[in-house]
Amino acid sequence: MNKNIVADSTFYSCCFCDIRRSDILFHFLSAYSFHLGHRIFNELPSSLSGNQAFLKAVTEQNFDYYQLIKPFFGRDPKHMKDGEYEAIGLGYLLNSQGILHILVLDDRRPRNFVKNHFPSLKTKVKGTVGLVQSSCCDDKLLPQKLALEFLEAILNNINDGEKERPCSIDRTIIGAILIPAITYIRNYHAEQ
């Protein structure tokens, strides 16, 4: 059985729109079982959400996963429609069943929310860059060539200024996360 991953819409948009590498997205979708809810699905670009190959490759859950984490928001409903919080709810459910491999959240706010309210999920949370590195070096399900192409495409996209924050990554993250991941993947495979 494939390892279960829940990702917010940023991961899908990163692959499909920002770096325009649907081949890498579909490689991920064939290597893992991706789960998403209707809020995440609705945040996807229509060119992806209407893609029949994509629809066959993911598991869409029809349940209001936000309701699982709603008590942590108190009475403030401002994030009720955010896909990130649906991803957290779905990740929480899969983790409680012992079947969550990775929860992909790129934005700091939802990551901090998990850190503060769901300690059992903390070790499962990765950003897109972390997912790429883990898939390549830990799970060995993403070839080094594709991993480096993915991360270098993000770097080139940032450097070209084509989009302000491709894959929710800005210039401050280049030196802290992106370049170290590229270096780690290169060195990891050089040592093998």
Report the mean per-residue pLDDT as an integer: 88
Largest pleated sheet = 5 strands, parallel
Helix content: 55-70%
Number of domains: 2
Q: Per CATH, which architecture of the largest domain?
A: 3-Layer(aba) Sandwich
Poorly predicted runs of 5 or more residues: none
Indicate the structural class.
alpha/beta
CATH topology description of the largest domain? Rossmann fold
Distance linking N and C termini = 26 Å
Beta-strand proportion? 5-15%
User: H/E order of the elements?
Assistant: EHHEHHHEHHEHEHHH
- Name of the level-1 CATH class of the largest domain: Alpha Beta
Described by the principal axes of the CA atoms, the overall outline is globular
Annotation, overall tally of beta strands: 5
Helix run count: 11
Strand order of the largest sheet: 3-2-1-4-5
Radius of gyration: 16 Å
Top keywords for this entry?
alpha/beta, 5-stranded parallel beta sheet, 192 residues, Rossmann fold, 5 strands
